[in-house]
Amino acid sequence: MGNIIFRFWLVNVLLSILLFVLYRFLMLDSELVDSTFFEKVLSIVDAFLNAYLSTVYVVVITLGSVLFFLNQIEKIRNSYFLSLITFSGVPFISVIFLTVIILGDTYQYGVTAAPLKLLFVFSVLYLLCTIVEFLLFRRKISLIHKLR
Q: Which regions span the lipid bilayer (predicted)?
């Protein structure tokens, strides 16, 4: 069983690395015009915001990946709900958190920072990938139980 969980974890880590690289590439691709002092200050603030959001994204993805190993506990592995939480709990909570922040910013200020929107999109992508991984994992587990 540990071998199956390790393979799913490895796929998740590779997918996480791919999503992170794409996320960083899209963040670095944005061009800013630095003609006035205020625009230069905004450019520096934007760079710090991008670095902060990248760090948050890496921490969330790492935590989500590590929780896969909780499926080695038989009680968690045999429970559909608990197994779902180990796969998609952290990405789901991060999507809910970002949704609240984006809706709050939009309601309060009328705008939302572009890096925050990009983080939201990649968090939703990661959530969808973990759901697909979970469904494949449950199919594999049910096949193993049928063979026993």
A: 7-27, 47-70, 82-104, 116-137
